[in-house]
Every structure is written in C-alpha cells, then in structure tokens.
Amino acid sequence: MFLPKYPDHPTPLPAHTHTAADQMPTRRPVPQISVSTGAVAAVLVGGVVLTALLAAVAVTAISVAVAAVVLRSLLRDQHRR
C-alpha cells in the first residue's frame, strides 16, 4: 500500500566532465567589513546597560518575593489571634 514504486529501467548516472588542472575557478571578491571603534564602544555600552537592567529586575523580583513572604506571615499571625 505504502511501498515506493521503483522504475523498471533505472537511468544511468550522468557522466562528469573533468576540467583541466591548470584552470583556477573564478572567485568573487569578498566584501571588506570595517568595524569602527565607535560601533564597538556602542555595543559594549549597550551590553553593560542591558546587564545592569537585568540585574535590577532580578533584585527587584527577589525583594518583592521576600516582602510578600513577610507580609503573609504577619497576616497569618494576626488571623490566629
């Protein structure tokens, strides 16, 4: 039912022609990329700023979690009395 159908007469492989050994393949020139120091500085400053923001978010999340645990324990002690 799902078996592949093979041709009755397989086609022969194409014959490869060889080029002469002394011919060099033509290469396209690679575009030169020049990176300025201003671009490097901008990337470094951006990385430092993003890292600082990530650290600030992490510290804020931890402090909010600690405050929530403290408030929860205070409210639980108040309801028991």
Overall geometry comes to elongated
* Topology as a string of helices (H) and strands (E): H
Average pLDDT works out at 84
Helix/strand-derived class?
mainly alpha
Helical coverage, percent range: 40-55%
Distance between the termini: 77 Å
Quote the beta fraction.
under 5%
Low-confidence runs of at least 5 consecutive residues: none
Tally of DSSP helical segments:
1
How many strand units? 0
- Major beta-sheet overview: none
Using only C-alpha atoms, the radius of gyration works out to 35 Å
Counting copies of identical and different chains, the oligomeric state is: single chain
How would you describe this structure to a colleague?
- The protein is built from one helix and no strands.
- With 81 residues, the chain is mainly alpha-helical.
Topology:
Layout: H1 37-80
Describe this protein with a few key phrases.
single chain, about 80 residues, mainly alpha, 1 helix, elongated
